[in-house]
């Protein structure tokens, strides 16, 4: 379960940012996760709830914004969402250029 190590890394980043800003507590954390990242949002939320105990983010809500990968076909100039690994355009069969879907980053956090 790599979500645990991701939650631990996220907590380190949250603690560092909270310390730098002089925050007493973190109430909300928003992250962006790509749909092809292999991260299961519910598992990450569960792990986050475990690692946040006794930290500056102990009462924080984790909000996961999932973004979809897209692909571009140069032949028919079509851009379309990708829900899984796809290598060919569904319209013309040409090899596509994938974009995104593997994102994982801290978007913002609310502090007090």
Automatic annotation (TrEMBL):
<keyword id="KW-0533">Nickel</keyword>
<keyword id="KW-0479">Metal-binding</keyword>
<keyword id="KW-0862">Zinc</keyword>
<dbReference type="Pfam" id="PF01155">
    <property type="entry name" value="HypA"/>
</dbReference>
<protein>
    <recommendedName>
        <fullName>Hydrogenase maturation factor HypA</fullName>
    </recommendedName>
</protein>
<dbReference type="GO" id="GO:0016151">
    <property type="term" value="F:nickel cation binding"/>
</dbReference>
<dbReference type="GO" id="GO:0008270">
    <property type="term" value="F:zinc ion binding"/>
</dbReference>
<comment type="similarity">
    <text>Belongs to the HypA/HybF family.</text>
</comment>
<dbReference type="InterPro" id="IPR020538">
    <property type="entry name" value="Hydgase_Ni_incorp_HypA/HybF_CS"/>
</dbReference>
<dbReference type="InterPro" id="IPR000688">
    <property type="entry name" value="HypA/HybF"/>
</dbReference>
<dbReference type="GO" id="GO:0051604">
    <property type="term" value="P:protein maturation"/>
</dbReference>
């Amino acid at each position: 379960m790599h979500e645990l190590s991701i939650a631990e890394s996220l907590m380190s980043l949250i603690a560092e940012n909270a310390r730098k800003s002089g925050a007493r507590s973190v109430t909300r954390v928003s992250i962006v996760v790509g749909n092809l990242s292999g991260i299961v949002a519910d598992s990450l939320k569960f792990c986050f709830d475990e690692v946040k105990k006794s930290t500056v983010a102990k009462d924080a809500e984790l909000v996961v914004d999932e973004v979809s990968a897209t692909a571009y076909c140069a032949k028919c100039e079509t851009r379309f969402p990708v829900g899984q690994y796809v290598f060919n355009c569904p319209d013309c069969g040409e090899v596509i250029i994938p974009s995104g879907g593997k994102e994982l980053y801290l978007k913002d956090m609310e502090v007090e």
